[in-house]
Amino acid sequence: MTPPPVIRLHPDDGVLIARSSLPAGLVVAEGVTTLERIPAGHKVAIKPIAVGEPVRRYGQIIGFATTPIAPGQHVHTQNCGMGDFAKDYAFGVDVKPAPNFDLPATFDGIRRPDGRVATRNYIGILTSVNCSAHVAGLVADVFRKNPFTGDNPLADFPNVDGVVALTHKTGCGMTQDEPLALLRRTLGGYARHANFAAVVVLGLGCEVNQIGGLMLEQKLAGRLRELEIQQIGGTRKTVEAGVAFVREALTDANKVKREAVAASELTVALQCGGSDGYSGVSANPALGAASDLLVRHGGTVILSETPETYGAEHLLTRRAVSREVGEKLVNLMRWWEDYTAREGAEMNANPSPGNKAGGLTTILEKSLGAMAKAGSTNLVDVLNYAEAVTKKGFVFMDTPGYDPVAATGQVAGGANLVCFTTGRGSVFGCKPAPSIKLATNTPMYKRMEGDMDVNCGTILDGEETVQQCGERIFELMLKTASGLPTKSESFDFGGAEFAPWVLGATM
Length: 507
Fold this sequence. Notes:
By secondary structure, the chain is of the alpha/beta class. It has helices spanning 133-141, 178-191, 211-217, 229-232, 235-253, 283-296, 313-317, 323-342, 353-357, 363-370, 403-412, 442-447, 457-460, 466-481, 487-490, and strands spanning 6-7, 15-18, 27-29, 32-33, 43-45, 54-57, 60-65, 74-75, 80-81, 106-111, 117-118, 122-127, 162-166, 196-203, 225-228, 258-262, 267-272, 300-303, 379-383, 393-397, 417-422, 435-439, 454-455.
C-alpha cells in the first residue's frame, strides 16, 4: 500500500509534512490543494494562519506567522519566524514510576579491573596543548591501520581496537579559570574512560595547561603516563618514548576477553547532525524508542546540545524527577541566552543553512524534533559539560549544538556508545566510543549507504512503525557494544572529531 503524500503529526497541527516533493495542485487534505511546489520534508499549511498567530507542529508552537498564510501554501522562513510565548515548566508533573530494571538483555563487554565495562579497547594518546599535537600524531601513526589497503601494524594484537591520538587546538593562551577547568575536566574524562586500556598524555612543557596541574586537579596519578617534549629533549626522543610506551601497553591490552554483561552497563550519547524535516518524524523518535528500551534495561542515555533543546525545555522539566533537576535545565537556558547575547548572536541562528534546506524553519521546530531522541522516561539528572554521569536513566548534559563538541563532552562524561541521527548525511566518529549512524530517509540512506548503519526511512515508507525501528536500533546497540564495527569505524573516523568546548578569550 502506497503511503499518503503528507504526514500528519498531531491533530492540533496547522501544517502537514511532505513525504516527498509535492507539485502544485495536489490535494493533501480535505479542501486543501497545494498552491505551489512543496519540497520534500517541508511543511504545507492546511488552515489559514494570520500574522502573529502560532504555527504548530507536533501539537507545539514552532514559530509565528510573519505574513498571512493560506491553506496549501509552503510554510517556511519566508512566512514563519520566532516569537515569545509563555512556557509552563510544570516541574515533575509527567514523572512516571521507575521502569523495570530486571530484564535479560546483555552484550559482550570488556570488564575492567575497577568493575567498569568497555565496548572498545583502545590505547589513547592525549595532548595537554596544541603544541604537542603533531608529536602525538606521529606516535599514533606508527600503529595506524589503513582502512583502504588493509595494512595493520596491530595484527599481532587482535583484541586491541587501535591507538588513537586525540589532539585539540587549545591548552595555552587561555584564562586560568573556567576555560582551563573545562578543558581539564574533558581530558580527565577521556583519561579515565573505560574504552582506554592505557593512556599517555603529551605536553610541550611551558603551556598554561601544565600536565602536573591536570594530573592533580583530575586525580589522575597512576592512571596515565606523562611525557613533556622540552624535558625529554625534542620531537624524535618524545616520539621514541611514546612508541615505547604504546608497545609496552599493547601486550597487557591484548589480554582482555569479552564476557556477557547486562545492558545496564551501556551509556549512550544521543546526537543528531545534518538534520532535516524528517528527523523529528523518523530517526529521532525511533532512537527515542530505543532509548526507552535501554533505560528499561537499567542503562543510561545522554541528551545534550542545549541550544537545540531551547524552546522545548518545558517539555523536559515536566519529566524531571525533582524541581531541582528541572530548574538546572531552565538555568542552562538562561545562561545560553546571556552567552549568545554577549557574543552578538541569537539562539535562532541555529538551524543551520543545511537544516533549513531540509525543512527546519526555527530553533523551536528543530528542538522539538531533537528531544525526541531521549524517548519518554524521567529526567533524572542535569550535568555541566564533560561532568561524569553517575545516575542511571535519562540525563541531560549541557553542550553546544555543534556535534563534535557536544559528543566530546558526552564521551568525557562516560558514554561508551554514540547514536547519531542525520537527515542530510553526516559522517562522524567519536573514538574511543563507536558511533552508530541513523538515516532519517531512504534516498539519503541509499546514496550514503557506506556511511549509514540504519535506515529509519522505513518509517516514512510505511514499512515499519517507530517502535519496530526502535527495537531494531536497540538490537544494533547491543551488537555494536559487543564489538560489531560501525560504518564510521570502517573508515577510521573518530580521532579528528575530538573537540573540547573552548570558552573564554584566546590571548
